Amino acid sequence: MRSLRYVGKHPNVVLLETCKTLKQIKQIHTQMLINGLFTDLKMLGQFVSAVALKQPEYIDYSIQVLEQCERPPLAVLNSLMRAHYKIAKPCKSFYFYSRIVKSSHNLKPDNYTFTFLIRTCAQLFVEETSMAVYGSVIKYGFDVDPHVRSSLISMFAELGLLGFSKKIFLEIFEPDSVTSTAMVSASAKSGDLVSARELFDRMPDRDLATWNAMMAGYVQWGQAREALDLFYLMQSEGVKVNEASMVSVLSACAQFGALDQGRWAHNYIEKLRLRVDVTLGSALVDMYAKCGDMDKAMEVFWSLKEKNVYTWTSAMGGLAVNGFGNECLELFARMKHAGVEPNEVTFVSLLIGCRVVGLVEEGQRYFESMSNVYGLQPSIEHYGCMVALYSSAGRLDEAISFINSMPIKPHVDAWGALLNACKIYKNKKLGKLAFKKIVELEGGARGTYLNFMRTGRGEVSQVTEVWDCSTTEANGEVHKFFIGDKSNPRQAEIKKKMEEISQRLKLAGYVANTISVLFDIEEEEKENATCVPVKNLRVCSDCHHVTKMISEIFDREIIVRNTNSSYHFTNGECSCNGYW
DNA sequence: TTAGGGTTAG
Fold first, then answer.
1. Which of A100, A330, A351, A422 fits a disulfide with A431 by CB distance 3.0 to 4.6 angstroms?
2. In whole angstroms, what is the distance from residue A494 CA to residue A502 CA?
3. Closest residue, CA to C1' of B2
4. Which nucleotide is closest to the Cα of A6 by its C1'?
5. Nearest Cα to A393, choosing from A515, A576, A546?
6. pLDDT in 10s for each residue of chain A, 580 residues
7. Residue A135's beta-bridge partner residues?
8. Inter-residue contact A251 to A219 (CB < 8 Å)
């Protein structure tokens, strides 16, 4: 009689991976015990690994089961190391490493062990420990293993030792493809995009992971154009993309506010029948939200079976910056109800949500709940949000006393929010103070908030480069414009259209408020400059006003997005209801 | 049964 053999996982183990509760896991455990399956050490190993890796919240139960085993196999101990660094418990991971090296039945760490040990070290973030582990790797002879090497490279990069990796792994041996990919990824993550790309271009056998690492690097460092160009290159070279590639593509579209390209990417995902898991789903929600299509963002959001803190936070952030503050707060309540723990970013979204509808007291309560209820430490961003919250609501005195009571030094954005409010609420004295602080902090180098200065040209002329950039998408193509920039090939047509807009604005009674646009350009040019509708800086009052008018005159919906808000202009009104 | 590449704010 032929004995029953399973190819791959035992059906019970497959079932185990879909368990939602500890009770279900225990049931399967009991069943496997009754069926005598655990006499096979391999089966016990499968059980422990499956629970630890797929159901990390019940990892302790898997350890209990492991303890019943006198001689746990190496693979299981390795899996437990991996499971623990995955749930950010590096010390436990070290513990299982010690179980391996001190085992009474002569276990020897293998290449898997070191891969996981190195990842554990990266999490601990202690250079001495990392170097000690590197020593062990060499001692055991695993420094030649591509996977171990690749983990070492990313660990060194995280420690800020990218150059060390380059010396060891690029200069001495000809790197294999796994090592090269790791180096591309590590360089890209560290922001060294130029050398990442050089290495990438030199690689004879780039696989999908290499392309994805390069693209992700561009996205992470805000180079959406390069990321999309790389994606087009991928397409033209016939490289088959996967979910991770599309996450980066969507993120690039989100950075650009490129709705048409984002929609195309969504269709493409469906066409390829890629699996829209929680990560890809969150990226979709974020893309639609950042491109201002909140209806579609929420449609995707509700269609997702699994939602994690990223998904909820993206949707909340989208609602908040698009002016739906109450909906943002409501979503937060639902998130808690769903049992998803908020993180620091969630509170940024929530506080922006409070600001856009002027809910100061609610904002205060949420801010306090961060440490009191959720054990989260408010960061400079949260303090900045609070200043913006008081400022937008016109409660300037509270804003300044909040700034004065802050335990951390306020950063330029906090003063910027206050300065903006001072302009709207015409508080010259506080405005001057805020401006002074900004110049102190930045020396005017970034020039971000200088367009809010009201005192005329003299003071601002000391400020050298005012940097302002706008992007806009037309027919699936993204265009970038800088102030005073005439390099666009269709400049003549653009100029003509701008003139038409100017003319019609003038007919409608518009007079450019050039005082708030203090760039190093001629007076006539200034008037034109105020008409550019999409800005990366905070939308100034003139832009706000003029965009309202354009939306009415040309009967167009206009979505303007900048670093911290989106504005929807229709029929001469703006979605911000005055809170901007 | 275990290894590389992925998302959120400012």
1. A422
2. 12
3. A79
4. B1
5. A576
6. 333 445 567 888 888 888 888 999 999 999 999 988 888 888 888 899 989 888 888 899 999 999 988 889 999 999 999 999 988 899 999 999 999 999 888 899 999 999 999 999 999 989 999 999 999 999 999 998 989 999 999 999 999 999 999 998 888 777 888 889 999 999 999 999 999 999 999 998 888 999 999 999 999 999 999 999 999 999 999 999 999 999 999 999 999 899 999 999 999 999 999 999 999 999 999 999 999 999 999 999 999 998 999 999 999 999 999 999 999 999 999 999 999 999 999 999 999 999 999 999 999 999 999 999 999 999 999 999 999 999 999 999 999 999 999 988 888 878 888 888 787 788 888 888 888 887 777 764 444 444 433 332 333 323 323 344 455 656 556 565 555 566 666 666 666 566 666 656 666 666 554 433 323 333 444 444 333 343 434 455 556 666 777 777 777 766 665 555 566 667 777 766 555 5
7. none
8. yes
Six token digits for residue A34: 């009754």
Nearest residue by alpha-carbon distance to C1' of B8: A310
CA A384 to C1' B10, in angstroms, rounded, equals 9
Give the Cα-Cα-Cα angle A286, A290, A293 (nearest 5 degrees): 95
- Give A576 CA → B10 C1' in Å: 20
What are the CA-CA distances from residue A395 to residues A72, A124, A389, A448, A520 (Å)? 64, 44, 9, 23, 33
Q: Is the CB of residue A127 less than 8 Å from the CB of residue A91?
A: no
CA distance A196 to A162: 11
Give chain B positions with protein CB within 7 A. 1-10
CA angle A349, A353, A354 (to 5 degrees): 120
Q: What is the DSSP string of A78-102?
A: HHHHHHHHHTT-HHHHHHHHHHHHT
- Token pair for A255: 């950075």
Structural domain boundaries in chain A: 459-574
Q: Which two tokens stand for residue A493?
A: 């047509």
